[in-house]
Amino acid sequence: MRKRSVADLTIGEKAVIQSFDDESLSLKLLEMGCLPGAEVQMSGKAPMGDPICLNVAGYRLAIRKSEAATIIID
Predict the structure, then answer these.
(1) 6-73, what's its fold?
(2) pLDDT (mean) for 35-61
(3) pLDDT for 1
(4) Are 15 and 60 within 8 A, CB to CB?
(5) pLDDT (average), residues 21-43
(6) Is the confidence at residue 66, as pLDDT, over 90?
(7) With contact defined as beta carbons under 8 Å apart, do 60 and 53 qualify?
(8) Staple 42 to which of 3, 9, 27, 47, CB 3.0 to 4.6 Å?
């Protein structure tokens, strides 16, 4: 079974961050508040689906869908 990532969320859906698939990108994501155990919610997507907007750590974060695909959720 394939692991679900933040990129798989639908607008309004919430999940808890478990881990990261890309070690080099994980430091950048950690610095932006994407910590394991943190709740994340998909709050919106650009018209073509990329980038996406997330609610995490009390603020909104816009990231590329390819970056969101490296954030593994429960």
Answers:
(1) SH3 type barrels. (2.30.30)
(2) 94
(3) 65
(4) no
(5) 92
(6) yes
(7) yes
(8) 9
